[in-house]
Amino acid sequence: MLTLKNITVAFGDNVVLEDLTLNAGEGQIIGVVAPNGMGKTTMFNVISNYVKPNEGEVIFFGKDKYGTEKDELKIRHHLAFMPEQRDLFHQLSGVDHLKLYANMWQKTDEHVEQIIEDLNMGYYVKDKVYTYSLGMRQRLCFAMMLAANTPIMLMDEVMNGLDVSNVILITEHLERLRAENKLIFIASHLLDNLDLYADRVLFLRDRKIIHDKKREEESELYLKVPLVTEEYESVKVVHSLPDSHLYIANRLLAIPLEDIKEDQHEWIERFMPYASENITIGPLGTHEQYERYYYDTF
């Protein structure tokens, strides 16, 4: 559905993306994570044609790519970028915004009422936006994406300002969109939430994608032991840790289970004096991977 092929973007001497390649198909939710300044926004802007790459191509549906004005208009019908709260018109109502987005993407507004009902917006959606709380505005921004109803959706911090009940509500709708074969990119700092619904999580660093965490391929299990630095240094002296072990963010020792499969119980017993109630076995979550790749940038 979407291919980024050898994308390089530079602003003067500042290279933001370099030879970045990505293939993404329909029916996927793809998280994009990295500290600020690593290229998330630039990648989104390249996909949506707000930024032209210095090198490389953006290809839709295996054939359409940026070129003539006609091509760009055609692509616009396939893709919508979630508005930011600052983009909202304070003197217009939520209903006005939903109808505006539906019309902009050449959809009828017949489904607007259903969107309002599904997102529990009926009690405020006819009021002017300047009266809305942070959470109300965020729900409206997400609802506008539903009104556009494009095959490809780009969302930045979609859960920003939402309470727990609305995070659950939006998550349910994201899963519905996936079932409708939408391709959804979500940039987010709510890492544990991404684990609930993202099929893939892309980690950006050094101007490219350094890790593509795919849920269906996350089969490697780790013995995970919380250890402060002093404990970790002590363990290294007393026990011969496998070369494959990770020590993440000065707080977590992670040993691939495959490398200690013959004596797992012995290893667990070794760590009981340090963290008897907190030893776990499982794959590395997005939060743990994030700390693994970016701890030195905090």
Sum up the structure in keywords.
4-stranded antiparallel beta sheet; 26% strand; 6-stranded mixed beta sheet; 2 domains; single chain; 298 residues; Rossmann fold; alpha/beta; 14 strands; 10 helices
Written account of the structure:
The chain has 298 residues and is an alpha/beta fold. It has two domains: 2-217, P-loop containing nucleotide triphosphate hydrolases (Rossmann fold, 3-Layer(aba) Sandwich), CATH 3.40.50; 222-282, no CATH class. The chain is 35% helix and 26% strand. It contains ten helices and 14 strands. The protein has a six-stranded mixed β-sheet, with helices on both faces. Helix 3 runs parallel beside helix 5 (134-148). The longest helix has 16 residues, at 164-179. It starts with a strand and ends with a helix. The relative contact order is 0.13.
CATH class of the largest domain: Alpha Beta
The amount of helix comes to: 25-40%
CATH architecture of the largest domain: 3-Layer(aba) Sandwich
Q: What series of H and E elements makes up the topology?
A: EEEHEEHEHHHEHEHEEEHEEHEH
* pLDDT averaged over residues: 91
Quick one: how many beta strands?
14
Biggest sheet, in brief? 6 strands, mixed
Q: Beta-strand percentage?
A: 25-35%
CA-atom Rg in angstroms? 22 Å
At the fourth CATH level, what is the homologous superfamily of the largest domain? P-loop containing nucleotide triphosphate hydrolases
- Please indicate the count of domains: 2
Secondary-structure-derived class: alpha/beta
Oligomer: single chain
Q: CA-to-CA gap between the ends?
A: 35 Å
